[in-house]
Amino acid sequence: MQTSRLEHDFLGERAIPTDVYYGIQTLRALENFDITGIPLRSEPLFVQALAYVKKAAALANRDLGVLDPTIAECIVRACDRVAAGEFDSQFTTDMIQGGAGTSVNMNANEVIANVALELMGKQKGEYQFCHPNNHVNCSQSTNDAYPTAFRIALNNKLVGYSQALGQLADAFAEKGVEFRNVLKMGRTQLQDAVPMSMGDEFQAFATNLREELLRIEDSRSLISEINMGATAIGTRVNAPAGYAEIVTEHLRTITGLDLILAGDLIEATYDTGAYVQLSGVLKRTAVKLSKICNDLRLLSSGPRTGINEINLPPLQPGSSIMPGKVNPVVPEVVNQTAFYVIGADLTVTMAAEAGQLQLNVMEPVISFALFTSISYLTRACHTLREKCVVGITANKEHAERLVRNSVGIVTQLNPVLGYETAAEIAKEALRTGKSVYEVAVTERQLLTQAKWDEIFTFENLIRPHFIQ
Fold first, then answer.
1. What number of other Cβ atoms are within 10 A of residue 308's Cβ?
2. How many whole angstroms separate alpha carbon 462 and alpha carbon 116?
3. Maximum distance among all alpha carbons in the chain?
4. DSSP 86
5. Which of 116, 151, 164, 292 has the highest CB neighbour count under 10 A?
6. Given this model, what pLDDT does residue 177 score?
């Protein structure tokens, strides 16, 4: 049996295995770009988005009479099958590559062309009937097809990320309700500050993360502007009149996204500002997640010699030498994920800056950085919620005991005794090891027992109101 077919491009001929749907340009990319070892199929939403773009182009070209309706119909059917994931294994090019994404675009063109050929009853490689460039890539360039597919995929990938982040915020909010009557010490600069509710502390975590959901939506609106129809540099060369508008409308219908055709296609073809902003949003969220995980590690530190106000779920032994040690492994892994995302943001920044003249050829590394960052953050949110936050418990009695023994509660006396007197009480308490109560009430008799009881009720400590 024949095990290969001959294909050619302007560089020469190559043998292509008969069982694969990609062609000669994809083969060259496989040989030239062995960088990450992560193929295009690792981002199925990107593969799906490429199929959407090619389907919309075929429909627009059919509508404008530049593509035979029969060929267009077979391309559309092939795109539907590719979008459904039937041919993900054929998308083999490395995620980081030279050529501004041309290898990705041609990988899609060749696979779709060969699937369409089979639908016509032809053999793979019989491109005279359906050609990767002449038909599947009709009225397109990599420079509009690739970024348009990239933006569609980003939009869809951000949906899952937003859901994961929202669920994590909800989990913190639920703990906020559960811990609303747990009295604890607030701290600034790692020093005792004033009392607060542990519920308020966890509710603040939820609020902190929910702010990021709004920023994600802002970024989604920016990446909904596309340059489809710009072709090579934004001049619409080789595209029929009206194509850009028609293909955009088809894409809106196919994807269900509120896609907008850029007003200045030349600017839109080289501009990567929307990616920089999205990357910045991801970095901002990573920073917040890392800060929250730092807090969880501190609050659970000990158990005998640390703060120990909360308990994290014990997941695995923490040492190969120290028996009984359990580490905060989930916050630790989320910290590390955040560090990666923060680093990836610099990659996006440098790649965006490196664009010259009418095209930014560094978009493949931008796509790799953003896709991986979104994937990692999504998994980190799921992991933090499922394996840590939902199982957190409070050491209520211990937390309250720390408050009662703290010198920090002297702040509550400022409105009654004044700052200077309160400071003297604090200094004396720290010097002698006595409690604020012993110094202020028992020894110096600056307050009556009744006034002390009024100021230091549980309710006033946890939800303070002004007392003179």
1. 16
2. 68
3. 103
4. T
5. 116
6. 98
Say how far apart CA 116 and CA 60 lie, in whole Å.
Answer: 17
Q: Cα(460)–Cα(448) distance, rounded to whole angstroms?
A: 17
60 touches 246 (CB < 8 A):
yes
Tell me the per-residue pLDDT of 171-209, one tens digit each, with 9 for 90 and over.
999 999 999 999 999 999 999 989 999 999 999 999 999
Q: Which of 319, 320, 373, 406 is catalytic?
A: 319
277-304 per-position pLDDT tens digit: 999 999 999 999 999 999 999 999 998 8
The span from the CA of 196 to the CA of 373, in Å, is 35
* Cα three-residue angle 161-342-166, rounded to 5 degrees: 25
Indicate if 319 belongs to the active site. Answer: yes
- Identify the band that residue 123 occupies on the pLDDT scale cut at 50, 70 and 90: very high
Query: What φ, ψ does residue 54 adopt, rounded to 5°?
Result: -70, -35
| 215 vs 217: CA distance, rounded Å | 5
Mean predicted lDDT score pLDDT of the chain: 95
- The answer to whether 252 and 290 are in contact (CB under 8 A) is no
Burial class of residue 451 (count of CB atoms within 10 Å of its CB; 0-12, 13-18, 19+): middle
Per-residue burial over 337-347, b = 16 or more CB atoms within 10 Å of its CB, e = otherwise? bbebbbebbeb
Structure tokens at 367: 């796509």
**Collapsing DSSP states into helix, strand and coil, what is residue 261?**
strand
Distance, in Å, from the CA atom of 456 to the CA atom of 223, rounded to the nearest integer, reads 53
Q: Residue 468 has what pLDDT?
A: 64
